[in-house]
Amino acid sequence: MKNLISVVGPTGIGKTRLAIDLAKRFNTEIISCDSRQFFREMKIGTASPSADELAEAPHHFIGNLSVKEYYSIGQYEEDALKKINKLFEKYDTVILVGGSMMYEKAVIEGLNDLPEANVENQQKLQEILDTEGIEKLQEILKELDPEYYAVVDFHNHRRLLRAIDIIWQTNKKYSELIAISQDSRDFNVTRIGIEAPREELYDKINRRVDIMMEKGLLEEAKGLEKFKDLTALNTVGYAELFKYFEGIWSLDFAVEEIKKNSRRYAKRQLTWYRKADDIHYVKVGYSQEDFGNLIEYINKNILQ
Fold first, then answer.
1. CATH class as words, domain 119-177
2. Which of the residues 1, 219, 251, 275 has an alpha carbon 20 to 30 A from that of 179?
3. Euclidean distance between CA atoms 100 and 97, whole angstroms
4. How far is CA 45 from CA 11, 190, 236, 279, in A?
5. Quick one: which residues bind ATP (predicted)?
6. Which of 213, 195, 196 is nearest to 259 (CA)?
7. What is the pLDDT of residue 268?
8. Where is the binding site, in residues?
């Protein structure tokens, strides 16, 4: 049986480093399931692995798309599984890494065959969005499906429209529909998480935003301003700077908002992962001994 080691955890906690350490230890390659790092124009704001990191272990699905390309989670599921199965011809173990919860789920469990968008529902929801704002959509989803509301990026109106539409069509909670595992994968999955005290994590996130600014996030965002209406750019680190370019916010305020929204996203990721009972945790900034214990755990898990 082949083995997929999935490294998960909130933004900024150090998943890239752990994935590389594991890839080197198992002499294998890495599949990214970080949906923001797919886009090559967004290197700094998504904290994509550096050239040095990419040279340490082969990575796939990093900077493989342009922000101008539409790419669905269903397409990713298909592409990622194809690549994983190809890698399994060469390796017994492959590493999956990323904090995009639904993208990891798509790989390890599969997406459900959800109905296509209903035009009438979409029009109705679009009217609500136009007249009463995104807050009204958030309110509707929270009432219909509090579980999904707790983990969804509720600033992304497309996600809200999609979830409410599906709930209206099926009379079932969206969170339940996406939780039903599809056909089982013919490989073992070992999920590894990284944990840190909340304060330490938030401190790391704040520092990382400062580093992104030093590396040129402002210039990167400026170059992408013409694409600001595209879904890929409707994300933390860019949306805030676009408001600065428009003269709505000061630069200092925009940077503080990036930090705040990044911490908020991390909190949602933690909520999602806390519900799972199959994640084995290693401490942030793990020692050699910790890493040794982790390898022991993985090997034991693989042999079971």
1. mainly alpha
2. 1
3. 9
4. 12, 29, 8, 27
5. 9-16
6. 213
7. 94
8. 9-16
Give the residue range(s) of CATH 3.40.50.300 domains in the chain: 2-111+182-303
- The binding site for substrate comprises 11-16
Q: For domain 2-111+182-303, which architecture applies?
A: 3-Layer(aba) Sandwich (3.40)
Q: How far is the C-alpha of 284 from the C-alpha of 89, rounded, in Å?
A: 33
What is the largest distance, in Å, between two alpha-carbon atoms of the chain?
Answer: 58
Q: Which runs of consecutive H residues, i.e. helices, occur in the chain?
A: 15-25, 51-56, 73-87, 101-108, 119-132, 134-144, 146-149, 157-170, 174-177, 198-215, 217-224, 239-245, 251-274, 288-303
User: Computed over its alpha carbons, how large is the radius of gyration of the chain?
Assistant: 20
Whats the size of the chain, residue-wise? 304
Q: Which residues on neighbouring strands pair with residue 252, listed in sequence order? A: none
* Residues tagged in the binding site annotation for ATP: 9-16
164 Cβ contact list (under 8 Å, min separation 6): 121, 125, 137, 140, 141, 144
> What pTM value is reported for the model?
0.80
End-to-end CA distance of the chain: 10
Pairing status of strand 279-283 against strand 187-195: parallel
Give residues with Cβ within 8 angstroms of 64, minimum separation 6. Answer: 38, 40
Alpha-carbon gap, residue 144 to 96, rounded angstroms: 32
Whole-number pLDDT of residue 182? 46
Nearest partner of 232 among 83, 26, 38, judged by Cα? 38
- Say how far apart CA 291 and CA 296 lie, in whole Å: 9
